[in-house]
N-acetyltransferase domain-containing protein
Amino acid sequence: MNFAPLSELTPADLHPCFLAAFSDYIVPAQPSLESLSAMLSRRGWQPALSAGAWMDGQLAGFWLTATPDIDGETEGYCIAAGVAPEGRRQGALTGMAGLVTALLAEGGIRRQRLEVIDGNQRAQQAYAALGFAILRRLDCYQIQEPIAARGYWPVTIHAEHAAADWPPANLAYPPAVPNRRESLLRAEPPLRWLTVRRADALLGSLLMSSDGEIVELQVAPGHRRQGIAGSLLRAGQQLTANGRLSFNNVDSRDLALISLLLRHQAAYRLSQWELGKASD
């Protein structure tokens, strides 16, 4: 098995191997090429800092890297790593991880992080062997039932807006990499922005994707528990084709947000562990 950076590869080159690697995953992922390309773009994929494993001239594994700035330090973030069935148990993950660590170190990047789904014991053990340790648990929820907001707050759906208009991200806990502002700015199609205002004061803000993923929800302190979040969620739900809202990567310590979701009959879907490691 040979290992090399993915410098010359495109999402189209990755797509067949990606489908094979995740065909039997604990949560099978079979994205279209368009969806895979959009995901890599939003995450900030860096091909030159990513690694591939080749068998007999065919791509059999990948470690896809981004380099977000977290708390003033550039880190290596594993967007996704996978090995096709025919390439497993041959040291592919270890070889790719070693190459990525070396590529990052050349640029002075010493810290890495990734997520792994809870229950995927084989992957968790593999990453532990590579030096990754648990940082926190991230939960995923889904709302399908119609939202009944307490009270009525008029919601503005901004047909056009600039990211500079968004309020500062004053969140209770740091967002996971896919939900950080630098990722949200790269979303295609651009995110929808919904707000609640009173006079010139911004009381509530919601950012969501076109398919119903709520990526950020904020209500101004002093105006919480007054139905503003519910009004925003109800308006967002009405924008979706099927009435389904999803919340990914909710910090498990964020009891206020989780309580809000459960109050609106959100169903728990799964959890992920955010893992990190620092190189010498």
Q: What stands out?
A: The chain has two domains: 2-109, 141-274. The mean pLDDT is 95. DSSP finds seven helices and 14 strands in the chain.
